[in-house]
Amino acid sequence: MGHGVTDCYDPLDPNGHIAITFDIFKYTDDGYVARVRIQNFYQYRAVGKPGWKLGWTWAKDEIMWSISGAFATQQGDCTAFKYQQPHCCKKTPSIADLMPEGAPENRLDDCCHGGVLAARAINPLQSYSSFEVTVGNLDKNSTESKPLNLTLLAPGPGYTCGPVEDSDPTVSSVIGGRREEQVFRTWKSTCTYSSYIANKTPVCCASLSTFYSPTISSCPSCTCGCRPAGQKNATTCVREEESSQSNSLANPDVVRCTNHMCPLRVHWHVKNNYRDYWRVKLTISNYNYNRSYSDWNVLIQHPGFSKPALTYSFNSTLLPTAGIPDDVGLFWGLEHYNSDILNADETQVGSVTTDIVLEKDMKSFTLSNGWAFPRKIYINGENCEMALPDTFPMLPNGSSKQVAASNGYFILLILFYLTLNVIIAV
After folding, report:
1. pLDDT tens digits, the chain, 426 residues: what are they?
2. Are 288 and 379 within 8 A, CB to CB?
């Protein structure tokens, strides 16, 4: 069965998309100058390294005389222009962003992030980029034509862009907002993401555990693929004890051999149950030997986020949940501390972790029937395959209230022991 437009729809981010806007703000003798903006409206899907590449097909014989804030990756055949060298003569140009250390004469405001666009809910000021291009080789009496067949690599496949269409001309404020200026013409396209296009197999799984049960709900076997039977070390994975001698580490996608074979795993551990609060430990593990994950984020759907939550070692925020039955928490690393999940090595997997303390909603909180476990988990916008419900840790004989009571009894025992020690010392 084929995958259609519905595959691009995410109920947790229904308005998510990347918008491409062409604003023609100046005409020249043989063409025009346009400002191109790339805006990431995805709440938790970023564009990571090595960054975006934007491509299209010219409708006529256009060329790029010059470009600021970005560059065409190939110049193409410009032999027809003997007295002035164009920046790019390709019929199908591919544009990439400049690095932050780009030369000042080539820079623009809002450019030069190395192609990286932050998720909008995490860093809206870094969620867009722009460049200016001078287009030429058009007849003076001809009308400019919209680019065709827009493509977006961000940084790999997964995005599908709609046709470039006319839109109301962009209006911007100048002189401190005291004057408005309007461009001559505006074209827009919308690009949406589909995991089915980007990934042949899942890239993440989620496992679960609790303080009240020895059972661990592991990731389902072969979640992200299966190691070929009968092979000690396949090219897709390497066993921990053999990683230092394996030639397979040259494969950029090689992971540590596991039952689930996923590059990433998210583990949710229900750690404590207090009278007014409950505590969770969240751990993200990287099993990939050759890839670290920069500026990662994890999205978790759980009704417990309807109440205030304290996160110790990650940044966090709640996302709007119009029409969604459960609340959604977004977590990401602290800059210069754990914003990168390091790659695995021969001794350990890369990981980041935090404790989360959540206030209880006494009307809904329970440890029964898997309520304490997430409904959905996403990492970097990719769905994590959940452990199967029939493997969830079960409460011991008795109710969640008894578990809470026993937890409270344990705390009272500790306090009694400390008090007794003080009395003895005196």
Report:
1. 444 445 567 888 989 999 999 999 999 999 999 999 999 999 999 999 899 999 999 999 999 999 999 999 999 999 999 989 999 999 999 999 999 988 888 888 889 999 999 999 999 999 999 999 999 999 988 889 999 999 999 988 899 999 999 999 999 999 999 999 999 999 999 999 998 888 888 999 999 999 999 999 999 999 999 876 655 555 578 876 666 555 567 677 889 999 999 999 999 999 999 999 999 999 999 999 999 999 999 999 999 998 889 999 999 999 877 667 779 999 999 999 999 999 998 889 999 999 999 999 999 999 998 999 999 999 999 999 998 888 999 888 755 454 554 454 444 444 444 443 433 344
2. no
What Å distances lie between residue 310 and 202, 315, 357, CA to CA? 30, 10, 5
CA distance 417 to 20: 65
Catalogue the E-assigned strands of 113-147: 128-136
What three-state secondary structure class fits 242?
helix
pTM equals 0.86
Cα distances (angstroms) measured from residue 190 to each of 44, 79, 149, 199, 420 = 17, 35, 12, 21, 69
| Rounded CA separation 54/36 (Å) | 10
